[in-house]
Specification:
The complex is a heterodimer. Chain A is of the alpha/beta class. Chain A is built from nine helices and ten strands. The termini of chain B are far apart. The chains are: A alpha/beta, B mainly alpha.
């Protein structure tokens, strides 16, 4: 549970367009690391590269001493990576509880034990919808179900793609508490999030992407002051 | 040398016909995004229409050609696009697949209804069969016409796509449908024009091909399906690549017939080479990455509890045992076949309903099992061997196709079914003769009588159904539902998607094998026609009509397939209707068009209705939804 995830010089090109360009950063255990940037900066592509859903043009992804770059997504997951999705990927035909159960049952098959699905749903604050079919859940709750499902694999590294979108202020605060708890338990958390308050509150280190390139990295305080970051976000706002 | 030249001419001529066909498929696919499974049947129907006009009614050949290629062909394509395809553009990827498979069956049904399949027909070669003496070999004017027409069509299409407004609009729609619409092209109209053009090309290849082969419904349809390989080799995009592929494949086929080493044994695969090519091309070029797809909900019914299901199973077997002595011997035969079909349909529930895959070769697994049992001989060893062979065949198909989905999985399984039919089943079962396959013997039940066999069949069905329901309730079943909803999420949870897909295909093939053994037992003797591609297609579509996710859907579809539709055909036959063979094709084809618009089957909708009225607890969840 104490392995560091390292992304080293990753570049991804789609038919001549470079989505991610020579990106490097680390996600140390026992802390929440932020990955932020305007829309289209390459955050989700980076997530896909880390979890194996997207192949790299060059660069490596490492977990501790293990090179993950050539491994299939399920092998990476078995080594301790888990994620949620920006565009929801809940199992729509199953209940919230069965969404988590699919993951716990599989984890038990592999490791002999697994957390209780209801305990996980309670931990993320979604136990009250355990019996609801997942495709009928509001976005915010569905994201929490995805989070509970990811936690079912007891991951060393947890990658969260905008877990706070669709949540209210109070729920967002609870999510922040949960992320800090997870980090305190030793999990390496990588957080992509547009809710700046949440990011500044929970992250120890932040990497900022713009047009597929790392434009800044540092502590939340440093990032807030960084002129390039402000320009990138302002530029994004102007163009939006 | 003479032989080589003659073969080359033959290969080029057939290659040209397939180039025309495949070009039609590509033109339609690129502009409308729909792969037309009925393309072969369209060519077949055009050839029959041309025969009717010229041979049947004595219309001069030139006038008939103008009518078929210039009027009926394009009109047919335009109407099909407007009525059948246009309403489906924004629906799931499955909808056009189902619609064009349905159309394929309808066209075969129409041909059977109008042209008695019992009679033989021949179309004369163009130019009255005149030949040109080239010294070493003779070439018929018809053959020359085929090559010339292909060249002319090739040049004409090139000019059409580069010089005419409509052609350029078609290319624009291919590149970006929405953008083309913004710039004033009307994607629907353009797609309609492309369907008209595609249908004309199918008609042209049908008319050119028919005089060179037997004018038979299956024969013509399947021959034109051979062009699928060329269309796929052109990646359904490039017309030049498609044409070259058609020529290469057909030259390969004719040379293989003459020069393939290994004597008779290897030569047997020659007729299946285009299908083997199709399988290989699909597998090599169409492996999908795992992609995210947004929230999807596969259609999974809420299941009856284990006890409730067991109660139904016992009641079913008791009812059948009580009914067996009361039924006429003819009915017992039909019910026996229905129960065997129902077991094969359950295997489709597993792979299609639960697994979210598609299979057009389920009867191939059943046939392999029946044949193996016949070879191994009496008793349970034969049954075990049959089921084992079916399972291995299932895994052999699944292994290379594990990353294929939808259209491409349908094409790969179609290719497998047709290749097995063309090079193995025809010979193994005998083309016309049937292979006698003994029934197993049981200590407690006399299954040599049809009524005893009916009891055995209902027990097997009930056990298979209970097994299937237990699977759906198990963690494997939950995992299947999850895989069906999001492969991406499953893989990031550490679930080995490949292994599960192999498992589903293997288990499903095994169950189809059990059904095959029962089917052979119900008929006592079987032939290759029992297990051909078209019957696999019909069974799959009937299951969609019934309900793919429910055991009762499989039973409903089996009753249609083995009892109700044959009874309707018999009644029509007795009333003097020569085309009674059309019934199953027409009814299945027409009914499945409904499924293209609403994936719920009849039984599923009834269960939904019963739930709304508070009558029943076993209910399916809402229809497939895809977040965009």
């Amino acid at each position: 549970m104490t392995q560091q995830l390292a992304v080293e010089g990753v570049t991804v090109t789609f038919g001549g367009i470079t989505a991610v360009n020579d990106v490097s950063f680390t996600v140390p255990p026992a802390q929440v690391t932020g990955l932020i940037g305007p829309n289209g900066a390459g955050k989700t592509t980076t997530f896909n590269v880390i979890t194996g859903l997207q192949t790299t043009t060059s660069g490596t992804v490492r977990l501790g001493d293990t090179d993950l770059t050539a491994l299939a997504p399920f092998r990476r997951a078995r080594l301790g990576l888990a994620r949620t999705f920006q565009r929801l990927e809940v199992f729509g035909s199953l209940t919230a509880r069965d969404n988590v159960r699919v993951a716990t049952e599989h984890h038990r098959d592999l490791h002999g034990s697994a957390p209780d699905p209801d305990a996980l749903l309670e931990r993320v604050g979604a136990l009250h919808v355990a019996d609801e079919q997942a495709d009928a859940l509001p976005t915010g709750l569905a994201r929490l179900v995805e989070l509970a499902r990811a936690l079912a694999t007891e991951p060393a590294v947890l990658l969260l793609d905008e877990p706070g979108s669709g949540l209210g202020v109070a729920e967002s605060e609870q999510l922040g508490d949960l992320l800090l708890d997870l980090a305190a338990e030793g999990t390496a958390v990588l957080l992509v999030e547009h809710d700046v308050e949440l990011v500044m509150r929970v992250c120890t280190g932040i990497t900022v992407l713009d047009f597929g390139t790392v434009i800044a990295r540092g502590t939340p305080a440093e990032i807030q002051k960084d002129a390039r970051v402000q320009a990138a976000y302002l530029g994004a706002e102007v163009s939006a | 040398m003479t032989t080589f030249l003659a073969l080359t001419v033959l290969g080029l001529v057939f290659g040209c016909v397939y180039a025309l066909t495949a070009t039609g498929i590509v033109v339609t696919y690129t502009t409308s995004g729909v792969f037309n499974f009925a393309h072969g049947a369209t060519g077949m129907l055009a050839a029959f229409t041309y025969w009717q006009l010229t041979v049947g009614w004595g219309v001069p050949a030139v006038l008939a050609l103008v009518l078929v290629l210039g009027v009926l062909g394009p009109l047919f394509g335009a109407v099909v696009e407007f009525v059948l395809i246009r309403p489906l553009y924004r629906r799931s990827a499955e909808a056009p697949l189902v619609a064009t498979l349905g159309l394929l069956l309808i066209l075969i049904g129409v041909s059977f209804a109008f042209w008695d399949p019992g009679s033989t027909r021949r179309l004369p070669l163009l130019f009255n069969g005149k030949q040109l003496d080239l010294g070493v070999i003779n070439v018929s004017y018809h053959q020359i016409a085929v090559v010339v027409v292909t060249l002319v069509v090739g040049v004409a299409l090139r000019l059409f796509f580069t010089r005419t407004q409509l052609g350029i609009a078609m290319r624009a729609v291919v590149d970006d449908r929405e953008l083309a619409a913004v710039y004033g092209a009307r994607p629907e109209r353009v797609a309609q024009a492309s369907w008209a053009l595609g249908s004309s090309l199918a008609a042209l290849s049908g008319v050119l091909l028919a005089p060179l082969v037997d004018l038979q419904v299956y024969n013509m349809t399947l021959l034109i399906i051979n062009a699928f390989a060329a269309a796929l080799a052109g990646r359904l995009k490039s017309i030049p690549k498609t044409v070259v592929a058609a020529l290469v494949i057909q030259l390969g086929v004719v040379y293989a017939g003459q020069y393939l080493p290994g004597g008779d044994k290897l030569q047997r695969i020659q007729p299946s080479l285009p299908m083997i090519a199709l399988f290989v091309i699909v597998v090599l070029t169409r492996q999908d990455r795992i992609v995210t797809s947004g929230v999807r909900s596969s259609r999974a019914p809420r299941l009856p509890g284990a006890r409730e299901a067991a109660g139904w199973a016992v009641a079913f077997v008791v009812a059948m045992a009580v009914a067996a002595p009361l039924l006429s011997s003819g009915t017992v035969g039909h019910v026996n076949e229905a129960l065997a079909s129902a077991v094969i349909l359950l295997s489709l529930v597993l792979v299609v309903g639960y697994g979210g895959q598609v299979s057009l070769c389920q009867l191939t697994f059943a046939g392999l099992s029946a044949w193996t049992m016949g070879e191994v001989g009496h008793g349970w060893l034969g049954v075990l061997a049959g089921v084992a062979v079916a399972t291995v065949a299932g895994l052999v198909v699944a292994l290379p196709t594990v990353k294929l989905r939808g259209l491409y999985l349908a094409l790969a399984t179609l290719a497998f079914a047709q290749a097995m039919d063309g090079s193995f089943f025809n010979r193994a079962f005998g083309t016309n003769d049937s292979l006698a396959i003994p029934r197993v013997s049981l200590p407690v039940l006399d299954v040599t009588s049809d009524r005893g066999f009916l009891v055995l069949s209902s027990v097997v069905f009930a056990v298979a159904a209970l097994g299937l329901l237990a699977t759906r309730r198990s963690k494997f079943g939950r995992r299947l539902a999850a895989l069906n909803d999001s492969t991406a999420a499953c893989s990031t949870l550490g679930i080995d998607v490949t292994r599960h897909k192999l498992g589903v295909f293997g288990a499903s093939a095994a169950l189809a094998g059990v059904g095959g053994v029962l089917y052979a037992g119900s008929h006592v003797a079987v032939g290759s026609l029992d297990f051909n591609l078209f019957n696999s297609m019909i069974l799959l579509l009937l299951l969609l009509i019934g309900e793919r996710t429910m055991v009762s859907g499989a039973l409903f579809s089996a009753l249609l397939f083995s009892v109700l539709l044959p009874a309707l055909a018999d009644a029509l036959k007795n009333a003097g209707f020569a085309g009674s063979a059309a019934v199953t094709f027409l009814v299945t084809g027409v009914l499945v068009l409904r499924v293209a618009r609403d994936p719920r089957g009849v039984v599923g909708q009834l269960a939904d209705g019963a739930r709304r009225l508070g009558l029943h607890r076993v209910v399916p969840t809402p229809v497939v939804q895809e977040a965009r």
